[in-house]
Design goal:
Low-confidence stretches: 1-23, 365-370
Mean pLDDT: 88
Structural class: alpha/beta
Radius of gyration: 21 Å
Shape: globular
Strand content: 15-25%
Helix content: 25-40%
CATH topology of the domain at 126-244: Rossmann fold
CATH superfamily of the domain at 126-244: P-loop containing nucleotide triphosphate hydrolases
CATH class of the domain at 126-244: Alpha Beta
CATH architecture of the domain at 126-244: 3-Layer(aba) Sandwich
Strand order of the largest sheet: 8-9-10-5-11-12-14-13
Number of strands: 16
Order of helices and strands: EEEEEHEEHEHHHEHEHEEHHHHEEEE
Length: 370
């Protein structure tokens, strides 16, 4: 766990609307806004376990989520996207920054300084669906106890009332209520993920964090779960933060996409805009790896293979973190000056010095390469 050093500096996120009554700066159209979020884990060495450095898993991330939308958070393994999600839900205590959340009554709170006791009411409104449906469910508990545990712990329901609620939740996610007496080993991967979704929905949340929720599933089952998530969003007016590495999945379910690289956000835009008109070289490289469904057009698609390795977040490079692997690096400004995340066009943000001059290749439509 990282040291609990906190300093809330000025927000770097654009278009903030101030709320004088609360003293917090937050967009008027946002349910959740992350500002300058940092999650640094200490590196300890020696007999006395002295701190000799930090792993900068998340290093100054800014984004917002509007009510009812799905924001995709994508990037390579180890880029910090899962750590970001767990910091939002306060499984980790962030090193610095702000996590502003707007409740149903319109009040805005910063979740970072809240104690575990104070966070209890917010954990009813912000829930998480985990990546691995096999390890996220207790094998010693039947489905009734797994799905009903949040209801019992929060004093919402018990006994027959809890059974009725669990039965309703199972129907909602496409499972039969009779299954509540079974244990996790009796279910397939897709069914276990449905149980995890039912558990996440037990407290009627407003915001759900989907941490690689379909990456461990077969392709056919993956499509079923994605359709279920979309149906639940429309039915229950849910808001999603969808963490993933598969851009094909993100394109299908997300309204906007945020791209992370070595703990930093490098691009943020509406899904169609980002796929058709990427403004950061890293995004272009990611899009080049999206599978081409039309065999006749695969030969026209050129995969961008990045040279070198992903930088160590404990010892990141100077300037732009992507410059050692970037084919467009100028060797001077990119090496010495860190590019800020700035608005390149309306609602399209990128952290690249040369976004206005580069002509990057995107995916304009399924089966058509720009």
């Amino acid at each position: 766990m990282a040291d609990t050093i906190r300093h809330n500096g000025d927000a770097a996120t654009p278009d903030s609307a101030h709320l004088p009554a609360r003293g917090l700066a937050m967009r008027d159209d946002a349910m959740l806004q992350v500002k300058s979020l940092k999650m640094h884990f200490p590196i300890r060495r020696g007999f006395f376990r002295q701190v000799v450095g930090h792993v900068k898993a998340v290093d100054g991330v800014n984004f917002f989520i509007r009510p009812g939308e799905t924001l995709g958070l994508v990037g390579e393994s180890g880029c910090g996207k899962t750590t970001t999600g767990r910091a939002i839900i306060r499984a980790y205590h962030p090193t610095a920054g702000e996590i502003l959340y707007r409740r149903k009554d319109g009040t805005v709170v910063d979740l970072i300084p809240k104690t575990n006791k104070e966070l209890k009411s917010y954990h009813r409104e912000i829930r998480m669906i985990f990546q691995d449906p096999f390890s996220s469910l207790n094998p010693r508990m039947p489905v009734l106890e797994i799905v009903g545990e949040p209801l019992k712990v929060n004093g919402i329901a018990k006994g027959k009332e809890m059974e009725d609620r669990v039965a309703s939740l199972l129907r909602r996610v496409g499972l039969r209520p009779e299954y509540m007496r079974r244990y996790p080993h009796a279910f397939s991967g897709g069914e276990r993920q449905r149980i995890g979704i039912a558990r996440a929905l037990a407290l009627e949340p407003r915001l759900v964090l989907c941490d690689e929720a379909v990456s461990a599933l077969d392709v056919s089952v993956r499509a079923q779960i994605l359709n279920l998530l979309e149906d639940l969003q429309a039915e229950l007016d849910l808001t999603y933060l969808f963490i993933a590495h598969d851009l094909s999945v993100v394109e299908y379910i997300c309204d906007r996409v945020a791209v992370m690289y070595v703990g930093k956000l490098v691009e943020l835009a509406a899904t169609d805009e980002l796929y058709a008109n990427p403004q950061h070289p890293y995004t272009e490289a990611l899009l080049s790896a999206v599978p081409q469904p039309d065999p006749a057009l695969r030969s026209r698609k050129q995969r961008i293979v990045l040279e070198g390795e992903v930088p160590d977040p404990a010892n990141p490079p100077s300037g732009c973190y992507f410059h050692p692997r970037c084919p467009y690096s100028d060797g001077t400004r990119c090496v010495n000056e860190e590019p800020p995340l700035r608005e390149i066009s309306p609602d399209h943000y990128a952290a690249c010095h040369y976004s206005e001059t580069l002509r990057l290749r995107g995916v304009v439509a399924p089966g058509v390469v720009a």
